[in-house]
User: Fold this.
Amino acid sequence: MSPFDVSQVDSAESSALEQINAAASVDALRESENEMVGKRSPFATLQKTLGSLGPEERKEAGALLQASRQRVAEARESRLVELSQSERAQQLEVDRMDLADVVSSRASAPLRAGHSGLVASTQRQLEDVFVGMGFTVADGPEVETDWYNFEALNIPPAHPARGMWDTFYLDVGEPETVLLRTHTSPTQIHLMENAVAAGTLPIHAVMPGRCFRRDTPDARHLAVFHQIEGLVVDRGISFADLAGVIETFTRAYFGPDIDSRLRPAFFPFTEPSAEFEITCTICRGEGCRTCSLSGWVELGGCGMLDPAVFEAVGIDSEQWSGFAFGFGIDRCAQMRHAVSDMRALSENDLRFIRQFS
Ligand code: PHE
Assistant:
């Protein structure tokens, strides 16, 4: 057994203190416990050499050794506290959730109240104009049979005019042909049939709604679009009444600066028929891409009800006469707000939509 050496106690203590100070984490410090102060430490080795001393010296050296070991244990303990506090502080920093930030980000971006789209609000404004002129507002189905969409409107199967209204057919497994309506005109038929059945003629009504055509969308067309149909059935109605209603509507909705014109046209369910056009509001009549350089934009068709239609619904055309019109609601919105490309109406771009809140 090697003799007890006091200087080894000092060096064991200073090297242990050095290691304690150098320890980088609680885990590292815990792992080295045995080597520093425990069974495998220099202190344990020195302890064993105490036996080489006489009883007096052994007592003194033992106390010395114990005190030194005690100092190392205390230093280690306080270093443990220090390390665990800083580790905890670091963890808290990582886990930190700044509620003030959350609250203020909510406060700076409050929920916006939505508003009607341009087409919906245009529809309501158009209804208002016609209600102001004494019309009622009616509704009709978007899915129709061939009879309502075509035949009752004097468009028999294979009639060339059907080419104007190519559409989407529904396979419902019925013998009857069912389709998405290509215009709001079939609502005329429903209204007249109902009025005949209920004995409530005359009719002065507008019928807004969605229509569908197998069209390729462009600056003036959408495959899903909206029309507002007008129908007057009364006694002694003339083309002058139709022209007067359209003129009044144009002034009320577009204002006095917009010119309108009726151009002779053909529709199987009206005779005579006309196309209703206004000055293109994008170019003010100069000619542009939107109006295909014509300076005019067609808003819809109109005309005096054809006796063949009266016959289809059982109205006596000797007693009753009337007119009908069908205007594109999307076109009206487009011209009123000078939207150069109609596709903007259905693209859901908030930068566009928010301009019409
Ligand atoms: N329904 C026709 C269309 O969509 C327009 C129209 C309505 C024409 C009423 C005359 C009378 O083209």
In short: Residues 118-356 form a domain with the BirA Bifunctional Protein; domain 2 fold (CATH 3.30.930.10). The CA atoms of residues 26 and 178 lie 79 Å apart. The pocket of phenylalanine is lined by residues 183, 185, 267, 270, 273, 300-303, 324-326 (CB under 6 Å). The chain has a mean pLDDT of 91.
